[in-house]
């Protein structure tokens, strides 16, 4: 085991072993690691359907494209380096959630959260720093529950941030996306007005 791998394992142990010492925090980090993704999905839906805010929809489109781009980069990174989850290779891991054994590098959960949350911050959402804290907590929780090494989440977070920054610079300037969004919104207004007319009758 080289120095980098040893440091990666040592940092994993330092974080994961906290769950053995502070057992009352385990349910909190289990929830964050497994279920915070649903909160993110709900937030995306709420931003998308917020009334009269076209910027929110551009933000969601940009974040979605950032996630796809980040996943592609992540899969390419996984071709050059791979490692199984800590619970599959180390002894006495505090494993708190179920997870299949595969290449855990980089962390998909961390990629997802940083691609979206960093996009929210870049687009100037109110309390944008809270989204960065949320993404960081998710990354930390994946180590706490025993399914990722620190390197998995650090690289995943970095990929998500880079992808979010690239799409933030490019996507809002693409006329095709703006035109497509106008077509969608026109259709949305038509459907809503049709539904209102049918209820009135």
Automatic annotation (TrEMBL):
Phosphatidic acid phosphatase type 2/haloperoxidase domain: residues covered: 60-168
PANTHER family: SPHINGOSINE-1-PHOSPHATE PHOSPHOHYDROLASE (PTHR14969), UNDECAPRENYL-DIPHOSPHATASE BCRC (PTHR14969:SF58)
Keywords: Membrane, Transmembrane, Transmembrane helix
Gene3D superfamilies registered for this protein in UniProt: Phosphatidic acid phosphatase type 2/haloperoxidase (1.20.144.10)
Any one GO CC term of the record: plasma membrane
Name this polypeptide is given: Undecaprenyl-diphosphatase
Keyword Lyase: no
Gene Ontology molecular functions: undecaprenyl-diphosphatase activity
KW Membrane (keyword) present: yes
Transmembrane segments: 28-49, 58-80, 105-122, 129-147, 153-171
Species annotation: Virgibacillus phasianinus
């Amino acid at each position: 085991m080289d120095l980098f791998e040893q440091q990666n394992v040592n940092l994993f142990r330092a974080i994961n072993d906290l769950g053995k010492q502070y057992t009352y925090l385990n349910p909190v980090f289990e929830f964050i690691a497994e279920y915070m993704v649903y909160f993110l999905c709900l937030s995306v839906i709420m931003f998308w359907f917020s009334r009269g805010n076209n910027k929110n929809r551009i933000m969601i489109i940009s974040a979605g494209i950032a996630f796809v781009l980040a996943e592609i980069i992540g899969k390419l990174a996984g071709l050059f380096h791979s490692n199984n989850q800590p619970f599959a290779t180390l002894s006495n891991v505090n494993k708190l959630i179920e997870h299949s054994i595969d290449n855990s590098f980089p962390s998909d959960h961390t990629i997802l959260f940083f691609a979206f949350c960093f996009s929210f911050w870049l687009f100037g959402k109110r309390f944008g720093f809270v989204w960065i804290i949320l993404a960081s907590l998710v990354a930390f929780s994946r180590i706490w529950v025993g399914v990722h090494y620190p390197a998995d989440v650090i690289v995943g977070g970095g990929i998500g941030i880079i992808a979010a920054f690239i799409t933030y610079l490019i996507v809002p300037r693409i006329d095709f996306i703006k035109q497509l969004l106008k077509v969608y919104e026109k259709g949305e207004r038509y459907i809503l007005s049709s539904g209102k007319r049918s209820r009135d009758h």
